[in-house]
Structures are given as C-alpha cells and as structure tokens.
Amino acid sequence: MQLMRIYLKFDFNLVCKAVLQEQLDALGMKYTIHGVGEIEFSRPPTPKEEQEMASLLGNYGIEIMDDQQMALVQRIKDSVTEWINDVENPKLYNFSTYLSEKLDYSYTYLSSVFSEATYSSIENFVILKKIDFAKSLILQNNLTLTEIAYKLNYSSVSHLSAQFKKTTGLTPSAFQKIILKRKERALTQK
Amino acid sequence: MPLHTLNIALADDDDDDRTLFKEAMNEIKIKTKLSLFNNGKELMDYLILPNVILPEIVFLDLNMPIKNGMQCLYEIRNHPRLHDLLVAIYSTSSSEADIEETFVNGANIYINKPTSFGALKQAIEKVLQLNWQYHTSALNKDNFLLRI
Amino acid sequence: MPIRKITSSPKVLAVSLILAIALLMFLGSISYKQIVQLGESADMVSHSLEVDMEINQLFSYYAQMQSTELKNLLSQDTLGISSFENYKPEVQESFQKLRRLTQDNELQQKILFSVQSWQDSLYNSLKIIADIPFQKTNYSASDREKITKVSKYITQLNLLRNQLYQEKQIQLAQRKEEYRSQISFTPLMTLLLGMFALFIFIISFLQINRQRKKTVTAEKFLQNILSSTDNIISYFLPIYNTTGQVKDFTIVFSNEKIESVLGQKSHQIEQCKMSELIPINFENGIFDELSKVITEGTTRKFEKYFEFNDNKFWFKTTAVKMENGVLTTSVDTTAERKFTQNLKVLNEQLEKQNHNLIETKSFLNNILESTSNTVSHLITERDSNGHIIDFKYLFTNTESENLTGKQVDEVIGKSISKIYPFVHETGLYDLMVKCANNGSIEIHETEYPLKDKRVWVHTTINKLNDGITLTSYDSTQIINAKQRLLELNEQLTVQNSILNDAEAVAKIGSYRWNIETKEATMSDNFFRLLDCEPNEFEPTPDNYRHFVHPKDLKLYDEKLNLAWEKKIIGNYTYRIITKGGKVKYLHNTGHFLKTEFIGVVKDITKELKNEQKLKDKNLELKRTNSELESFNRVASHDLQEPLRKIQMFISRITDSDSSSFTEQQLQYIDKVKSSANRMQTLIKYLLSYSRLSKKKKDFVQVDLNLVLDKVQEDLEAPIRESGVEFILGDLPEVRGIPFQIEQLFNNLISNSIKYHSILDTPKIEIECEKMERNSIPDDFHKKAKEYYCISVKDNGIGFEQANAHKIFELFQRLHQKNEYSGTGIGLAICKKIVEKHKGHIAAYGLINKGATFNIYLPV
Prior knowledge:
Chain A is mainly alpha-helical and 190 residues long. Chain A has helices at residues 12-27, 47-58, 68-85, 95-103, 107-118, 122-140, 145-151, 157-168, 172-189; strands spanning 31-34, 38-41. Chain A has a two-stranded antiparallel sheet with strand order 1-2.
C-alpha cells in the first residue's frame, strides 16, 4: 500500500485560540481571550458552568489553573512568545521593560514568581524560546544563519551558534543535518 | 505544587550505573518516580503493558544484552502508543556517527555518561527542566534535540 | 501471395494514389462542363421564349394593321389619323429583331423571308383598302374582293407564323433531349468514379498504416539487435566550420555496449561532442576517417588505437555514410591484436634467424666463386723397374704463387719432393702415386705450412697421360666457414633445446595442425605435459581427445568445431587427465595462419591453485582484520566503562566530604583523577583512530568551506579562549568522507590552537592551490594528475624541521606531558585520514615562528 506523509507547520497560538473559541461558544457565556492562556468572562461562572468548562476543555488537554501564580507564569510565557515571534517590529526597549509594562508588575516580582514556579529563570526561558524559533527558521531552509541571527536580534552569527550549541549541545548545522536525514529516512521507508 | 511528580524510566544493564543514576535523581530538586530496568527487553515488556502509566522520559543505554538501546528506540518510534515518548540515550559512546545515528532514528536527547557525579546530576536536571518546558511552553517537540 | 505483394508494394500504392487523384480531377472537370452546359441550356430556353414573344408581337401587329384599316373603312375615318401606316416602323423593328434572334437557324430565316414578301403584299392590299372611298351601305364587289384579299394575306401570314412556332418547338425539343442525355449520364459516372477513388484511398491508408506498423516492428527488432550486439554501434553527425569542413562530430546515438568502453551510459553521452568526450579520436585518426566518409560518401574500414581512462583498446571499425551522418560499427580487437602482436614478434625472430643462415650460405658461395684454383701438371719419374719414385712439375698456373708463395719459375722442372717435401707426410704423395697407377680421381685436403701460415689446401688429383694434374685451392676459409656452420648448427640445436626447456619450464606446449593435409605436430613438451614421451602417439585431434577431462569434453568439442568451421581458436581453459592420471588445467591460445592452426597451451594448474590460495589467504586476512578491528573497538569501548566508573566514584568520594582526608590523601586522589582523565582521552583518540580503518567507502563531494564553518562551530569555545584569528582563502570541493575531512581539519586547527603563540595574536591561515602532479616536490605515490594543496599555517610555537616526520607517528610527542596536553594521536589520525583519501600530508616548522601543514588531496 502506498503511504504518504506530509509535513505540517503549526501556529500553536492560532490552533489553541480556535479550539478555545469553539468550546467557549458552546458554553454560551460572554468572554474575551487575552493571549492564549487567559480568558476573561463578563460575569463569574457558576460552579456548574466551571465544571462543564473544565470537562469540555479537558478533552483538548487544556486545564484550568486555579493558582493565580501559575496563571501569571503562563502570561509571562505568552508575552515572551509574543515578543520573540514579533520579528517585524523593531525592539524599541529591552525585554524587562516590555514585560513589566505589559503585565503591570515589577520585573523583579515577575522573575521571582517565574523562578519559583519553574526552577528556571525568565532569561533562560527567553533563550529556550529563541532557540526554538531559530530551529523552525533553520528548517525553513530559505534563510541563512546570518539572516536568522539578525531576525532574532543576535549581535552575530557566532553568538547565535554559541547559544544554540549551549542550549542544545549541537551546532545549528548538525541540527539541520539530523532533521533533514530524519525526513529523508521517513520518505525512503514509506 | 508547581510540578507534579515526573515518571522516569531507565534501562541500563550496568548495576553501578543504575545505582548512580538513582542517587543522582534523589539529589535533584525536581520530584521524580524512577523505574529501573536491567535491559531493553524488560523495558519494552513493561511499556507495552496495557494501562501502564507511560513515563515522561525514557533513558536508554545503547549497549545492552538481549535488546539494545537502538532496538528499543526503533520499537518505541514505531509503536502507535509509544511513538511520542521522549527518549534520552544514555551511553558511553562518543562517536559522532553513533550520536547522529541515534538522533536520526528519533532520539531526543543524547547523554554521554558523565565522568563525575556532579556532571550526572547537572545533566539529569537539565533534561528534566527542558522536558518540563517542552511539556508546558508550546515548544515544538519534533525539533527537540539535546546533546549533553 | 503475389497479389498481396503487388498491393503492398509502395510503387503500386503511389500509382493508385495518382490514379485516384486523376479520377478526382476528371470528375471535377466533368462537373464543370455540366454546369456550363446547364447554363447554356438555360440561355437557349430564354432565347426560345424571346423568339416566341417576338413572333407574337410581329403577327399581332399585322392583325392590328388589318383591323385598323377595316375599322377605318367602317367608321369612315378618312383623316387617316389611325392608319396601318402607323404600325409600319414597329413592324419593321420587330421583324428585324426576329431576324437577329433567329440568325443561326436557316429554316427560320427562310420562313422570315417569305413572311417579308407576304408582308409587302399585305401592305399593298391594305393601301388599296385605305383608298376605297367611304360608302354608307354597299360596297362594290371589287371592294369586297380587296378586303377579302387582305384577309387572305393575313391568313397566309398566320400560316407562316405557325410554321415559325413549329420550327421553334422542334429546336426546343431537340435541345431538351440533348440536355437530358448529358445530365443523366454524368451523375452516375461521378458517383461510380468517386466511390472508386474513395476505395483506393482507403486501400492506400490501410497499406500505409500496415507499413508504419511494420516499420515500428523493424525498429524494435533493430533496437534489440543494437542492445544485444557485442559491437559498438554509434551514429555521428558532423559539425562544420565556416569553410564547410568537418571540424567535429556530435554523438547522436550509441548502443549500450559503449558503456563497457567509456563507462558511461549511452544516453549520457548522446548529444556530446566528440572533441569533448573522446578527444583521443583526433589523434588516432578516427576523426579523419569519419570526415572522409562524410566528404567522400564511401564506406571505410579501419582499425585504430583507442585510449580512454587509461584503458587501451584496438577497434576495428566500419563507417558508413547514412543520411547526413556516419554510422560506425566497431569491434574490440584488442585481444586479437595483442595475440597477433606476440606472434609477429616470434615471426620476426624466426625470420632473423633464417636471414642469418642465408647470409652464411651466400658467404660460403662467395668464397668458392672468388677463389681461383691452382692447377699444376706433373710427370711421373720412374725407376728401372717402372716404379714411381717422384713427380716433376711440368706446369703450374700463376695462382700457385698466391697459394704457395713460390714463383712459377722456381717450380717448373723440379720434383715435388724437393720443393714440397711435406707431401710425403701429409699423404698427398701416396695418393698421387695411387692415382698415377690406377687412374682414379683422388681428393686430398690437409693443412700445410705455406707462406709462414698454416693453410688448408684442397687438392683434386687426376691422371693425365703418364702424369697427373693437381687442382688445388686454399680451403682454409671454407674449412673455417664449415666450422662456423657446424658451430651455428650446434647453436641452433642448443637454442632449440633451450626452447624446449623453456617450454618445459614455462609449462607450455605448442602444436600445429594443418587443415589441408590434416597433419598435426605437437611439441615435445606438449607430450610431456600429458605425461607422455615425445611423439608417443600420433598427434591427431582424435588421439588427443582421449586426454580431455570428461567434464570438459563438451567445451573442447565446441571449440574444436568452432576452429574447424570458422577458423577461430579462442582463448579458453579446459582440463585434461594425463597419462599418469593427474588433472591439469590447460589454457589454450592460438590463431589460424594460411592453412594451419598454430596454438599454444599453457599448464595453469599451479596458477589456478595459487590464485585460490591467494583468495583464501585474502579472505583470512580480511577476517583477521575485521576481528582486529572489532577487538580494537570493543577493547577501547569496554575499557572506557571501568575507567568511567573509577572517575565516577572518585567524584563521589571528593564530592561527599573532602574534609575527612589528609592533604596527602587528597593529593593522591587528585593524581588518580588526572591519570584516569588522561587515560580517557587516550582511549577516546585510540577509538577514533581505529575507526578510520573501517572499510566504509562513502566518498562524496565535500565542500571544504562548509567543513571549516562546521569545525569553527565545533571549536567555538577554544577559539574564543585563545583569540585565534582565521584567514581563510576560497576552498574547493574534494571527494571524501565528510566525518573524516571534518576530523582532519578539527585536529589540525585544534593543534594550532593548542600550540598557539603567547607573544603574538594567534593566527591560522588556510589556503588552497591547485597543483600539477609534477610540480609537487614531496615524494608520495601520485596517482592523480592534479592535486589540491591545502595549507594550514599558524604563527604558534612551531617545531624543529628535523622532527617534521616524527610528529605524524602514533604516540609521538615533542613536548613534556605537563607542558601541553597532547596525546600523540591527533596528527597520526590526520595522516591516516589523508592517506585514506589518497593524498599526502607534510609539516614544516620553525621554532617560535609557526607551523605549516600541507595537505595534498587529489582533484
């Protein structure tokens, strides 16, 4: 039998948002989605509604967090993702300013909440997120490393390479080679 | 409790290595539940049990009797229920070709067995950290490659 | 089926097609004619109508004239306002018109003529009526008669009118008949002919279609032949220069066989230019031959030498002009040629020997011819009893002076015993006596001391009367020549026996087999190869056949048949069983010369056995090699395990609680640790060194620029720490194993970084240069024509040039262990990698100035 594989690229935010909207519409409550990790209702949901919502969203692996701090961590993460993925607009101010203005907390507070909840710092998370983005750009193939470094606000290619290697233990080219070989193998096996 | 207990599995035929791994696990901050297996076959037999709670990460030694790590990796990647498991290779070999081969075959992490306990702890900690981030932060798991 | 044949012949096809076209054209013209006639008929009808009308007109005028006059008469209109005269011009006009219309009908004209006469009469009588005066009632009889006359004339005219009508009707009927006949004939004919033409067209179409199918089959058939033949068949199209001369050829087609020569698939070389693909053809004359075929249009056969990728061939080629290009059919005659060459050399040797012999012979003849004889006549001197006591010279020719050195005068009249006393010793004298007594011819030859030399003299003694005649000549040279001939003969025998010995030593036997006389000879050694005495049996093919191994009999018979029928003796190997029961492998080669097969068999039993042994040995070597390899790997790998444990547990000890140890204990633990670390590094390097021997041959094009990017990425930390500056030239692509090339540069650059200068800014310069094989000073096995010389140059601490060779040896270090952390394996690995890539690495160093490593890799 002839099997076929296709490869996809997702915009996770969009997918999540679509799923949320679908499920929340089914619930019939007025709501506003802030980022991906936060929903604002016009009135507090009844315990029954809350339960129903939890089961509906649970089907999609979405959990309702009852902890304020966790919610904040999630918002920090969302902001980081947003900040990094927005490659078109120039970064006018540094990240800490951006974050504290956006979330209306002092950066020190945010960092401490974040570290406490994740055993890791916001800075580390930013790097992780950046490298993850760099990976997807590397695999798009039409960008050179120099262009990627520029896009992600690195001062030089070697800076990017060094951080990539430090985070993943691999050089960007080794990474690219492995993923390409994986795809190649998947194609030849089918 | 920000992090729930992580389920970890390790398949390694070396008694000392298993002990050291367990000791290192006990000394790190993240809470884990470690299952140990003497070889690949034991691990695979366990994983394919119905209703088993799948571990978040599987650590595989490459050089094992009965069923080696590469075979396990292959079986995991071709099993409908297991193929999304996070697999970390835990081996002595530092041959670039070996490493590339395991990554191409679908390993997410490759750890050269460290030569000091401290390094072992650090490596495990880094893996668990990263694993957690991948589980919670919308990172693309397909591109999750780490070499320590 | 002859009919089928006829219909299928393209000529008949063309003829029928032309016929069909002609028929169609005929049909077209008929139709045209018909249409024209139709038009004509229509004209005719309208013409008749016109005539009809005009006749009516005319006669109505006449009637009106009559009625007008009669009316006048009745109404007494004397004014003559309405007189018949008024109608006259109209009548005239109408009459003229009618005349014109009927001018092509004689009968009508005639009728009209009488009409005119009757008309005149009518006019007259009408005039008369008009003149009759008016009367109230009665008209005289004459008047009545006059009126009656008019009526009569009118009646006459009416009769004529009827005649005219009749005539016209007849004409019309005639034409109608004509028209009908034509019109009924043509449509039928058109239909029939049209059908016929269509039929021919269909037949033609079917025929053409069948022919096309046949062509396709023929093409497929041809394709099969092309792909299965052993010959190389190619088709070239010429490329002309501006002056119209052939300057090159394009390869349009070549069959699959070409792959065995050029190593490329036939479709790969199609549309290639000859000058690009096989420039050799411009040197060996093939191009000239092909050009001649193009310009002269003749078929040419030639045998040319062809060299491609170091393979040497001889091709016998037939080139035929086909359309605009040349079709060549080439047969590989290399083997044949080689064999002929060997025979030619042998032939030449034989000819040379022959020549030498002939020379010797003619040389002897020359001596005989050029030496004139000494002729002497002597008379017997007898005692009283009649016994011969001596001979006295009566005559001797001047030649004797040349022979003996004595003047003729000195000799004449003297007895022989006095002049040449030695004749008694040599026995000549006795023979002379014998001849004188018996009259027999005696011949004597011996050596004399003449003219201070020892000379051989040949003498013939004849009795003449009471005397004898001596005919002598200096036979020294003949004797010598004879001697030489003898020696030569002996030499030949020796040579022959040497040849025999050679055959024996080389285990070769030769044979000849004449196909006309059916005679066969086998060399002595051939017999010996069969464990037989020379000529032990009659060497016929049948007798020999008994020796052939039963399992090879089929092959032998086939080859013998082939030889018999096609005069070809190929190279083949078969087994024989000797008289002694030993199985031997014989390799046969031979050829056909005039009427004979000449062949050589070689006993290759030992070679085959040796080959097998070699194969076995090779296999064993391979096995041991792979065993060694796996041993190496497993050993190093398994060595690492316990070592790592040592390191691990040491770290456990030091981590846990170092305060409980004494200073010295801590020091010891530290030493254990560093020793273990060092051992680990060593094992790691050893592992990678042993990995190089793996026989994987995945050579690909490797871009060195990318390799260096990767290496710089890998060495990012040490590069940053040392602050090394890179100056990179443009680097080429080389054929290699990517991992190894990476390791090569990684090691070299690591080396340079490790031994970097502390005084200067560390720099590493990497450049590349393409070099001809001959311009490379270093001595190594240079197989490729060109090499890339890639130099890695640093300004580090360098080394003494005297140590340049040493640094590539395994475990060779130029520094103290604690100075630099080398293992002594890195550069050895480099050397091994470069050698595996069929290249060479050399190092040049100057203390405190830097080191340069030149890597030569084949282009």
